[in-house]
# Entry
Amino acid sequence: MIKSVVQISFIGILLLLFLAGCKKMKPSKTTPVKETEEEKPIVVVPPKKKNMLPVRFTTTDLTVDLIYMENTALITEIKFSGGIRYLMTYADKVLKKLQKYKDNVHVQSVDYLITDGRITRVTRLEVREKVTTPAEKYYLEYNASFQINNIKTYAANNSLLSDNTLEYKVDGNLLSSAIATGSLISSYTYSYDIRNGIFQSVLFCQLLKMEINEVFFTPGTNNILNLFNSRSQKENVDYEYTYTTDDFPTEIKIRQKGLLQTYKVTYTELK
# Structure
């Protein structure tokens, strides 16, 4: 009897040990690891660059207004308060003709020959009492970046007057020009700021500058600071600017031959 009880107790102990072992062997529950979302980099979008067009230059005794073809950067008219006026016409948005008026009298025409979308020849014509007389003409050559890199000017009798070679910086600004007139060579160098150029959005500005030789009319990606001629310092010109928060000049101070001129600049935005 006692032996049976001992056997039963022993069997019970074994059973308890077996159950306890099963509990220990039962796999524990694991908490699933939450997948963390990959952080996306913050992309900073720079503000859209404004296309500003100069529409007015003013000094104490002069106002110059620039008028554009609607919704373009093509100048169609430049009016000086002193009575000078320029009218520009275009063919397929390429400069075709410039006419100069003085006190509403037509005094000069400039015709542009377009070859494969580029202007390759410019002919100046003097107008007097509605009679047109050929004057100079010049031929243009371009580099691989479509910049004018050579200008040969001829008289009405086709004799060579000058040969102008131009070089540019990587940013597109004019670096130097060398004008050969016979055996005489005049060399010019140019320096610029790093702000938005007054005329940077205006089309055909360099060509218009050749006919409208005003000191405030300054083509370039940026703004010219200095024009320097090592042979004749009388031709040197220095520029100083006051800028807007968008880095466009609102005032130009131009010093030439000891004289200081100040221009206020007004813009419109081309959208």
